[in-house]
Design brief:
The chain is mostly helical. The protein contains 7 helices and no strands. It folds into 2 domains: about 1-65, lambda repressor-like DNA-binding domains (434 Repressor (Amino-terminal Domain), Orthogonal Bundle); about 70-110, no CATH class. It has helices at about 1-15, 20-25, 30-40, 45-55, 60-65, 70-85, 90-110. The radius of gyration is 15 Å and the shape is globular. The relative contact order is 0.12.
Amino acid sequence: MGEQLGERMRSLMKQYGITQAQLAGYAGTSQSSISKYLSGAQEPGGEILANIATALHTTSAELLGKPEPTISTSFGFVKEYCARHGGDLTEDEVAELITTLLAARKERNDTDR
């Protein structure tokens, strides 16, 4: 599983133009640890994994190759992301989050009936 995690991390780092040193800073760990995660030699703990996921604009589950979460389960991620990065969001990101929240609300209302 570690190699797949590393591949996903590497792909997202490339997509967002994030270096190992930058990711280490965002995640609160060392560049050496990031290198080990990328090679599959080591896997991050829960908190570091969550920080890496946030820095790479994804979820821990997606990094680990878990099934795609539904909109309802994405609600928790949106709340956590806003709490951590609310002041840093662009107008487009705010609009996307609002759309996600409204879709989650509709999905919850539809399942309650």
